[in-house]
Specification:
The chain has helices at residues 2-14, 16-29, 34-53, 55-68, 73-85, 89-102, 107-120, 123-136, 141-153, 157-174. With 175 residues, the chain is an all-alpha fold. α2 crosses α3 and α5 runs parallel beside α7. The two termini are 22 Å apart.
């Protein structure tokens, strides 16, 4: 029973934050037609594989975006995800905090910060970040999965199961 939930959560941590960043950038670009959405998401999936294979290129791309627009909260969150995947947790934390300073409504940055706190062993702060992300965006499946993971690690298995199920429901709804 828990095997699938854990598998999905690990998937979220690995690739989903990048897809969310692409989707956010897409929304900000103002694409309105479904054909454009699918094209952008497909490009995002291809780019995600490239990012996963070469974090240095992604690091450079987000750094370049910040050089061109220092107020780009999405680029700070993206750079935070790269640093997080490299184990550079302090730098990741700083990037997510900067993204939130620029845009306190960035639920993706709250999820990134929450995940960083979780990796650092700060469960209480991580829980607060995931809850804030859900307050901003009740459809954030990664935040539900993050809370599920925290509750599972605390032995609160009933709650964990509820949050994992909600994350899965949201994923199935999006498909």
């Amino acid at each position: 029973m828990w095997k699938n939930e854990i598998k999905y959560y690990l998937f979220f941590l690995g690739i989903f934050p990048f897809l969310v960043l692409f989707a956010t950038a897409f929304r900000r670009a103002g694409f309105a037609h479904k054909e454009h959405q699918l094209g952008v998401l497909n490009a995002g999936l291809k780019e995600t594989h490239t990012v996963k294979e070469n974090n240095n290129s992604a690091d450079h791309a987000f750094s370049k975006a910040l050089e061109l627009n220092p107020g780009n909260d999405v680029a700070y969150a993206g750079l935070g995800n790269i640093y997080q995947s490299q184990g550079r947790l302090q730098q990741a934390e700083e990037c997510f905090k900067k993204a939130l300073e620029l845009n306190p409504g960035n639920d993706v940055a709250y999820v990134g910060l929450g995940t960083t706190y979780q990796f650092q062993g700060y469960s209480k702060q991580a829980e607060e970040c995931f809850k804030k992300a859900l307050e901003l965006n009740p459809g954030n499946d990664v935040a539900y999965a993050g809370l599920g993971n925290i509750y599972q690690s605390q032995g609160r298995l009933q709650q964990a199961e509820e949050y994992f199920k909600k994350a899965l429901e949201l994923i199935e709804f999006q498909e």
